[in-house]
Write a structure and sequence with these properties.
Layout lengths: L1 E3 L5 H13 L3 E5 L2 H4 L12 H4 L2 H4 L2 H6 L1 H15 L6 H11 L5 E4 L5 H5 L4 E3 L2 E8 L4 E4 L21 E4 L9 H9 L3 E5 L10 H8 L3 E6 L18 E4 L2 H14 L2
Parallel strand pairs: 1-10, 2-3, 2-8, 3-4, 8-9, 9-10
Antiparallel strand pairs: 5-6, 5-7
Helix pairs in contact: 7-11
The protein binds zinc ion.
C-alpha cells in the first residue's frame, strides 16, 4: 500500500494519477465521512445521532411498526441534521470527475442527497433518501415536507392512514440497488473508497469484490480502515491510501488529474 500525504514523492503521486486517468470504469463508494465537511456529523461519532437515539430502540423496522411516533423523534432529529446543508469540495470533485467521463457511478451509504446537489447524476443510494416518505402498505412514496420536522402528529398516508416512514433504510430492511451495484462493480478498474470504513455489509463486500476481479482500491480516510494490519488477520487491500481530510485530499487529486489530461 502506498500512502499519499504531504511527504509523498511526486513519482508515486503521478503513478496514482496515471492509473486513475487510464482507468476504464472508476466507481466511488462514499460514506458519512464525505459529508462531515458539510456539517453533518457521522451518526456513530461521539455526540452523533446514535448517542441520543440508540439504533436498536429507534432505527429498526420493528421499532417503527411498534411505535412510529417514537421513531419519528429520530427522523425529526435526522432531518434537522441534514436540511439546509450544502455539498463540500469533495462532493464537487466527484461531480467534476463524472462530467469529465472519469467516474461512472457513485454508490453511497448517505441519505443526504448532497452528491446530486453537487451535480452527480449516477448515484446509487443503498440506504434510500431523506427527500421522500413511504407508505409500507400502499408501497407509494410522497415528497418529504419541511413542516414534518415540527413536533406534531405523525404524518399518515392519505389513502390508507398508515403512519408514513421516511424513505430511508432502517435496520432489518433490505438495502437498495444491489443488482445495479453488482453490475457496475463487475468490471470496475478503480474503486474510490471515500469517508467510509466499509465495515458493514453490503458495503464491506464491495472493495473485496473489486479487488478479486483485479481492480485497484484508492482509499480516502483519516486512517486506513480497509484491512487494518497484517496482525489483524485481514489483508490490506488498499493500493493507494490518501491520508487526511477528504475535503482536501480528493479535490487535490482531481485538480492534478484534470490539469495534466
Ligand atoms: Zn397507504
Amino acid at each position: 500500500m502506498h500512502t499519499i500525504d504531504s511527504n509523498t514523492d511526486s513519482e508515486t503521486i503521478e503513478k496514482a494519477v496515471t492509473l486513475l486517468r487510464n482507468s476504464q470504469n472508476t466507481v466511488a463508494l462514499t460514506g458519512a465521512g464525505i459529508s462531515v465537511g458539510s456539517g453533518i456529523p457521522d451518526f456513530r461519532s461521539d455526540g452523533g445521532l446514535w448517542t441520543e437515539f440508540p439504533p436498536d430502540e429507534y432505527a429498526t423496522i420493528e421499532a417503527f411498526h411498534v411505535n412510529p411516533e417514537k421513531a419519528w423523534q429520530l427522523f425529526r432529529a435526522l432531518g434537522h441534521t441534514i436540511v439546509g446543508k450544502q455539498p463540500n469540495p469533495a462532493h464537487q470533485a466527484l461531480a467534476e470527475l463524472e462530467q469529465h467521463g472519469l467516474l461512472t457511478h457513485i454508490v453511497t451509504q448517505n441519505v443526504d442527497n448532497l452528491h446530486q446537489v453537487a451535480g452527480s447524476n449516477n448515484v446509487l443510494e443503498i440506504h434510500g433518501d431523506h427527500l421522500h416518505l413511504q407508505c409500507l402498505v400502499c408501497e407509494t412514496t410522497e415528497p418529504f415536507l419541511e413542516q414534518y420536522l415540527e413536533q406534531g402528529d405523525t404524518p399518515r398516508c392519505e389513502k390508507c392512514r398508515t403512519p408514513l416512514k421516511p424513505n430511508v433504510v432502517l435496520f432489518g430492511e433490505p438495502v437498495r440497488h444491489l443488482g445495479a451495484i453488482e453490475k457496475c462493480l463487475h468490471d470496475c478498474t478503480v474503486l474510490l473508497v471515500i469517508g467510509t470504513s466499509a465495515q458493514v455489509y453490503p458495503a464491506a463486500g464491495l472493495p473485496e469484490a473489486v479487488k478479486r476481479n483485479g481492480g485497484l482500491i484508492f482509499e480516502f480516510n483519516h486512517y486506513p480502515a480497509l484491512g487494518r494490519s497484517a496482525f489483524s488477520g485481514v489483508p490490506i487491500i488498499t493500493d493507494f491510501f490518501f491520508s487526511g481530510d477528504v475535503v482536501e485530499t480528493l479535490p487535490n487529486l482531481v485538480v492534478k488529474l484534470l490539469s495534466n489530461s
